[in-house]
Design brief:
- By secondary structure, this protein is α+β, with helices and mostly antiparallel strands.
- Helices cover 35% and strands 24% of the residues.
- It contains ten helices and eleven strands.
- The strands form three sheets. Strands 6-5-4-3-7 form a five-stranded antiparallel sheet.
- A hairpin with a 7-residue loop joins strand 5 and strand 6.
- Helix 2 packs across helix 3.
- The radius of gyration is 30 Å and the shape is elongated.
Length: 338
């Protein structure tokens, strides 16, 4: 209710300011009728303008209305409620997620411009930023500014790029070419998906050309080749990756997953949306069964392994076997040392 009242007050103050600047010398009675509020409310608004925004408000006894003694004065057209200020101050720490990209600087410039538009009397309690709220983000690789913006340009200009790329398991950079179709940000990590004319086709290894996903942080030395491309009409990013779960490019159909989580993790699992098409069933023993479909078998495997003995894979058998093999490898590493 208070937030709604603040919004009405904000709108009314802007309108009163506009009427005064318009030279109409509005009176209290006129403002009451125009805005449908009481005399007491209008008088509070006038005091608010004087006290909070240092409005040079004067009353003309001959015209029986208000005017600004400084004709250049105006309320800057950005008035934020306390709730708005709290939201802004809460969002600022989220910029930590973009420390690895040039977006951090751009976002901060935008916030500075908004701050410059605010009246001098408006301030944000620093405790919102420094004490009461903390954000923990994943460790992210640094992205070169030129590379970052070049990829965005390539997506918009439909021009093929050439660059050096280092895969996760390699120490050397290899020459790559790609037609950039789509950019993806997953938990602060940035990727580009597009057509690589030199990559082997996943369905036919003897054939050249395939849609691939590349981590932008592993790209360097981007050059524009001058060759233009067209994104196929049937291109659907959802056919290559799972926007709910991960960015591993798997062109094969989604797999059905059925996972049984122990009672100790039941609330943690059931409180979250792991996948847009998920179904969660609570069992009589307190455990929960999570079911969904995804083509992200590599990502799902890593995710499941992170729960250790708290989860059991019911389907597919391929994943259950893979988790069992990994568990045996881990056990073998420690042997009898524990």
């Amino acid at each position: 209710m208070k937030e709604r009242e603040d919004k009405f007050k904000t709108h009314r103050l802007l309108q009163i300011d506009k009427e005064i600047r318009g030279g109409g010398y509005p009176s209290v009675d006129k403002l009451m009728n125009t805005h449908g509020v009481s005399r007491r409310t209008i008088l509070r608004d006038i005091e608010f303008l004087r006290d909070r925004y240092d409005a040079p408000l004067e009353y003309d006894t001959e015209r029986k209305g208000y005017f600004y003694s400084d004709p250049t004065f105006m309320i800057r057209n950005v008035l934020l409620t306390e709730g708005d200020l709290f939201t802004v101050s809460t969002v600022l720490p989220l910029l930590e997620q973009y420390k690895n990209t040039p977006l951090e600087g751009s976002f901060r410039n935008i916030m500075e411009k908004i701050t410059e538009m605010l009246p001098d009397q408006v301030s944000v309690d620093a405790s919102f930023l420094n004490k009461d709220i903390s954000f923990i983000s994943d460790p992210l690789p640094k992205i070169d500014e030129e590379v970052f913006y070049a990829v965005f340009r390539a997506v918009k200009s439909f021009e093929r790029i050439r660059f050096g790329y280092r895969s996760s398991g390699s120490r050397d950079y290899k020459d790559k070419r790609i037609d950039c179709y789509h950019i993806i940000c997953q938990k602060g990590s940035w990727y580009v998906i597009g057509f690589d004319p030199d990559a082997a086709d996943g369905k036919d290894p003897g054939r050249k050309g395939s849609v691939r996903v590349y981590a932008i942080a592993r790209m360097r030395g981007i050059e524009f080749t001058g060759e233009l491309f067209t994104v196929p009409e049937d291109f659907d990013v959802g056919r290559h990756i799972d926007l709910s779960f991960g960015i591993w490019n798997n062109p094969e159909p989604p797999t059905e997953y059925e996972l049984l989580f122990c009672p100790a993790t039941a609330n943690y699992i059931s409180e979250r949306e792991w996948h847009k098409d998920q179904s969660i069933t609570r069992n009589e023993d307190g455990s929960v069964t999570l079911c969904f479909k995804s083509n992200q078998k590599q990502v799902v495997r890593s995710w499941v392994l992170g729960f250790g003995s708290a989860v059991r894979v019911l389907r597919p058998k391929e994943l259950a076997d893979s988790v069992r093999e990994e568990a045996l490898k881990v056990a073998a590493m420690y042997g009898d040392t524990l």
